[in-house]
Amino acid sequence: xxxRLSNEVVNNQINRxxxxxxxxxxxxxxxxxxxxxxxxxxxKREIVSKELEKLTKIYEKRTNQIxxxxxxxxxxxxxxxxxxxLNEEHNIVNVFIEELRKRMVQDxxxxxxxxxxxxxxxxxxxxxxxxxxxxxxxxxxxxxxxxGLLENIKTSYKNLTGVEVKxxxxxxxxxxxxxxxxxxxxxxxxxxxxxTFEWRFKKIIHLTxxxxxxxxxxxxxxxxYV
Length: 226
Prior knowledge:
hypothetical protein PF0899 fold; single chain; 5 helices; ATPase_E_C; 4 strands; 8% strand; alpha+beta; rod-shaped; ion transport
């Protein structure tokens, strides 16, 4: 039996090999296409992810800026309201103090009260200073009253301290707007002690301001107002 293959058999084997190679090529091509598609999809996902991350950061930044602007706007609005309210309160307090001042001036003029108070203000200042020579700076309108008190003041001072004091009316006067009282000035203008009604009135107002504001305003509703 001859071992030589016939042409037909050889051709069949060649065709099968060609078919096999073609099939393998197709499979490899499909694998490469699939791999390429997977790589492309992965690249697309990475691009989309990066763009989404950028957009998210931009959104968060803009959102934070909007919130910040809103907070600033609300804070500014509250501050403006608060400043307006404080200004209104300040004006009301000033009107109240001025009215209180006028009434105090009127009361001082009643029943010779001012004369006795001026006497005590001068004497108290002298006792605190303990000086032998003092000038009295008073309101010009009080000159006659003060001159009429000098001798009694000297006597009372000597009884209290055992020392005599020389008193003179100062060449200058307290401001016309002053409520009265006295500034005690030492020779040479080197020092003085203020004991005017204006000074005492301001001191009392300063000490009682919390109570005055509490009486004038309802602070329990302030939070709602602001």
